[in-house]
Write a structure and sequence with these properties.
- This protein is mainly beta.
- 6% of the residues lie in helices and 51% in strands.
- The strands form eleven sheets. Strands 38, 40, 42, 43, 45 and 46 form a six-stranded mixed sheet that branches. It has a five-stranded mixed sheet with strand order 2-9-8-4-5, with no helix packed on it. Strands 11-18-17-13-15 form a five-stranded mixed sheet, with no helix packed on it.
- The termini are far apart.
- Mean pLDDT is 81; it is low at 14-34, 129-133 and 434-440.
Length: 667
């Protein structure tokens, strides 16, 4: 039984140690397992009736964290960063020792450590007045004379991030500003030293801080950018402090912080950061103003900088100021705009065109060169030039045959937007003069089919104005006797000087049709000089193909005037080979006295596969037929013979017919 009692007592002691001892240990050591932690509070004491601002340092702070005095409540809290908070302690807090707690209402974390001592100010001891003494007359009590002293701000516990920088990079300086004087520092302003090598980042050069009481602190963070000309090694960030006391006395001091600058290579880099042209687009041959913004994006100085705006592949020519423009020295980060008046090449193509540029400068004592390309928008320009056309032409014959003479009438018109001066027209082909001469000369080759008559085939036309100028020329020709059937081009050459003085030739042509007729030898059947009315009259033609090619004949048609065409009115002939003969005959009958005209039309398909015809005409005269002579009564009548009866069929005849009927060969 005693053994069981000892076991129960041992179990109770173990349970007490497991449940109570860790909590008691955690409370005594002020250690909290949560993320929020409080490490120190400055200042550690304030005076009641005055209050002040305390700085709480620790870890795990957020923008929702608040400072609380146990037994008093939450304080007005300012979030500085994850390691620092500021809280205002009102002067109404009674004297005593209070625990400082940081709470996070979002995450629920809280931590406490340290204590804040609120002390009571000195109290005057009143002396009792004697009861027998008369009550003295109350006189104004003079205000107490302030204690001599001044506020004195100093920086401590600073941090520069990053600790090693390069020229042109940014940094942040965080430091604790401490008032070690005996008066409150009012209207406190911290600003970067304008004479230093660290420039404001984002335009914020100064911070206005709250009043700092004696012994009070405030956490300050300023950002800056290191100058490009910083020397490598340790450098000093200077921050000027200005403040005053309640008497209106002004004070200033300087806080300095060390930062290491990493050595960098000094190099220049020139670029054209912006370009524009006026006018835009620019016309070929016109002046154009080009603006370029040149920027030194490097870390070194570009000395004796020179811009040149020409190149063999560009579209700009030097203007009145030339093509080179001195810029001078460009500091790192400095930009300058150069305006160059140039001329667009007359042969510049329309659309966006590249224009190279060159920047030469000195980097130290070494010559450097930077090349680039800007884009120039060239306007589309319609070139003014004449355009000569053969407006119309005609000949005085329907069709041409070898050996025919004809007259060509041609009208030349300028439909272009530029005038053509000193125009020379030649009926023929004009080739280039390779003899070394100049001008508009050349070698003229006339057509081998059509030869000009009466002139040399050339005419001086003169000036043809743009759009309205025209000239009409008349020239007689003869067709070559050896020409074959076909469609021929008669060359017409127009020559005039161009804009550069060199001859410009325009080659035109007129299409002419030559048809060789069939080579037929006719053996005509002439009509008699006279014929009688109402009597049929035969009409015919006969011919021989004496040519070397086949003739594709169609119908031969007969028509007549003062006569009626009797059958056949049309006769189809067909093809007639070389050396063969052909003929066609018809009959007409005069219907009235007078001239009779008979037309024979021989239709055929010519050598250019077109219908054609050969027409032959015959004439005669129709007269009245003479009257019939009277019958002589003494003339004996003509007796007609009496027909003999057919012979009687014999037995052999009947037997033959029977056999033919049986065999199906007769009846």
């Amino acid at each position: 039984m005693h053994k069981h009692r000892r076991l129960l007592i041992l179990a109770a002691i173990t349970t007490f140690l497991v449940m109570v001892w860790p909590a008691a240990y955690a409370q005594d050591t002020h250690q909290d397992p949560r993320t929020t932690a409080v490490r120190r509070v400055e200042p550690r004491s304030l005076q009641t009736g005055i209050g002040g601002t305390i700085s709480v340092y620790g870890s795990g702070f957020t923008g929702d964290s608040v400072v609380r005095l146990k037994g008093i409540g939450l304080l007005s809290t300012t979030f500085v960063n994850a390691q620092a908070l500021m809280a205002v302690v009102p002067g109404s807090v009674p004297p005593g020792e209070y625990t400082v707690e940081v709470r996070d209402p979002v995450s629920g974390d809280s931590a406490w450590d340290r204590t804040l001592l609120i002390t009571a100010g000195p109290q005057p001891t009143p002396e009792p007045l004697p009861t027998s003494a008369p009550i003295p007359t109350q006189e104004p009590v003079p205000l107490p004379t302030p204690l001599p002293g001044e506020p004195r701000l100093t920086a401590r516990s600073y941090n520069v991030t990053p600790g090693v920088i390069r020229p042109g990079e940014g940094l942040a300086v965080t430091f604790e500003l401490y008032n070690q004087g005996n008066r409150t520092a009012q209207s406190v302003v911290a600003r970067l030293d304008p004479a230093g090598k660290f420039l404001p980042n984002g335009g914020l050069a100064a911070l206005t801080l709250p009043d700092i009481p004696p012994g009070g602190t405030f956490l300050v963070t300023l950002t800056a950018i290191a100058a490009l000309d910083l020397t490598s090694g340790p450098n000093v960030v200077s921050i000027a402090l200005t403040y005053r006391d309640f008497d209106g006395n002004n004070y200033d001091s300087t806080a300095t912080f060390s930062v290491t600058v990493e050595a960098t290579t000094q190099a220049t880099q020139l670029v054209a950061s912006g370009t524009s042209t006026t006018p835009n687009p620019a016309r070929p041959g016109d002046s154009v103003s080009v603006e370029l913004t040149i920027t030194n994006t490097g870390t070194g100085v570009a000395r004796q900088t020179l811009l040149r705006l020409t190149g063999t592949d560009g579209v700009l020519l030097a203007g009145a100021q030339g093509d080179s423009f001195p810029i001078g020295d460009l500091q790192p980060g400095e930009s300058i705009t150069v305006t160059a008046d140039m001329i667009v090449r007359t042969d510049a193509k329309a659309g966006p065109q590249p224009q190279p540029y060159t920047l030469t400068y000195l980097q130290g004592t070494e010559a450097k060169e930077t090349t680039g390309t800007l884009t120039l928008n060239v306007a589309q320009v319609e070139a003014r030039a004449p355009l000569l056309l053969l407006d119309s032409y005609q000949i005085d014959a329907e069709r041409l045959a070898p050996g025919d003479r004809f007259t060509l009438t041609a009208t030349i018109k300028n439909v272009g937007n530029g005038a053509a001066d000193n125009v020379l027209l030649t009926f023929g082909a004009v080739t280039e003069d390779t003899s070394g001469g100049s001008g508009s000369g050349g070698t003229t080759t006339t057509s081998s089919t059509f030869a000009p008559l009466d002139t040399g085939g050339s005419f001086f036309v003169g000036t043809l104005e743009a759009g309205v100028g025209q000239a009409t020329l008349i020239q007689p020709f003869i067709v070559s006797g050896s020409a074959k059937s076909g469609i021929y081009s008669l060359p017409i050459t127009l020559t005039y000087p161009g804009a550069d003085g060199e001859p410009v030739r325009t080659n035109l042509s007129a299409s002419l049709i030559v048809v060789v007729p069939p080579a037929l030898q006719f053996n005509d059947t002439p009509l008699p000089p006279e014929t009688y009315i109402g009597e049929p009259l035969p009409v015919g033609v006969s011919f021989t193909n004496i040519g070397s090619s086949e003739i594709n004949f169609r119908a031969v048609e007969f028509t007549a005037e003062n006569a009626e065409v009797m059958d056949p009115a049309s006769t189809f002939l067909g093809k007639l080979a070389a050396g063969d003969e052909g003929s066609a005959f018809g009959t007409v009958m005069p219907t009235a006295p007078g001239p009779v005209t008979v037309t024979v039309t021989i239709n055929y398909i010519d050598e250019i596969n077109q219908p054609n015809a050969i027409v032959k005409t015959f004439t005669t005269t129709a007269v009245e037929a003479p009257p019939m002579p009277p019958i002589d009564p003494d003339f004996p009548p003509i007796e007609e013979p009496t027909p003999e009866p057919p012979p009687e069929p014999t037995f052999a005849d009947m037997l033959g017919r029977f056999l033919l009927g049986v065999l199906g060969l007769g009846s």
